[in-house]
Amino acid sequence: MRPVKLSAATTVDMTREYFDENDILLIPTIIIIDGEEYADDYEQITPRFLYDKIREGKLPTTSGNGTMVYYENWKKIVEDGYDIVHIDLSSGLSGTHNSAVMAADMIEDEVGEKRVYVPDTLAASSGEGLILDYANDLKNEGKSASEIYDCILKDRMKVNHWFTLSDFSHLFRGGRVSRTKMILGAALNIYPIMRMDINGKLVQKKNTRGSKKAFKTLVDIMEKRAECGKDYNKKVFISHSDYIDGAKEVEKLIEERFANVKSIEIFDIHQIGVHTGPGTVSLFFWGEERID
């Protein structure tokens, strides 16, 4: 069995230290601001810089990596004798998954066997991060690349994604919500509750009013859906788009209600924040499978 190398895009919203400590290949996505391209590699652009630009009225966009970006990153690793498992954004949200699959197919055609495995995570942000962390655990247990791939496909629906959003203004500027919805959202202090569906797309579940109600709703959902309910004993990831106070409030509510949780980690949202703007808090945990 060949050794395994993990690869991931910055859309997993893990820290640079996590990549370095676990020897995971980072393939940065591209964020474009005022026509200038920035590699989202924790150096050229930071979440603080991104959200400051959005608050200034800028409308950043993203550019998915093309097939050759993946191919060029992976070719030497395969030549060095590794098999690769790559973790990327849901195919329901981006075309990067298909680009990565095409690069893997190119390498397979060249070497005559499958060497790069690209599961469709159907995940986003720190939900991808949970899957990457799971893949890293499986690698450390001695699983092969094909075994890790199979485990991800089997378990990906168990990664629960729940989001709330405090500010509709950036969504309006980007044409994602109407002016009426933006005005009503601000006037009524609406915090939508959103989730990931079985196709890896974000869908709205309900509306709440006010941050306290929204954060409590996220944790109520976790109690209902988490593996073992209030006895949940695995990791919890929380991510936010320049809303650390909100993330910490969700963390506090989880600590008060879940005594056995293994760990709670908070991360900055990178690329997804280009689309949501500041004010997002997201909660990720292992639990009941998505069914719709």
TrEMBL record:
<dbReference type="InterPro" id="IPR043168">
    <property type="entry name" value="DegV_C"/>
</dbReference>
<keyword id="KW-0446">Lipid-binding</keyword>
<dbReference type="GO" id="GO:0008289">
    <property type="term" value="F:lipid binding"/>
</dbReference>
<comment type="function">
    <text>May bind long-chain fatty acids, such as palmitate, and may play a role in lipid transport or fatty acid metabolism.</text>
</comment>
<dbReference type="InterPro" id="IPR050270">
    <property type="entry name" value="DegV_domain_contain"/>
</dbReference>
<dbReference type="InterPro" id="IPR003797">
    <property type="entry name" value="DegV"/>
</dbReference>
<dbReference type="Pfam" id="PF02645">
    <property type="entry name" value="DegV"/>
</dbReference>
<protein>
    <submittedName>
        <fullName>DegV family protein with EDD domain</fullName>
    </submittedName>
</protein>
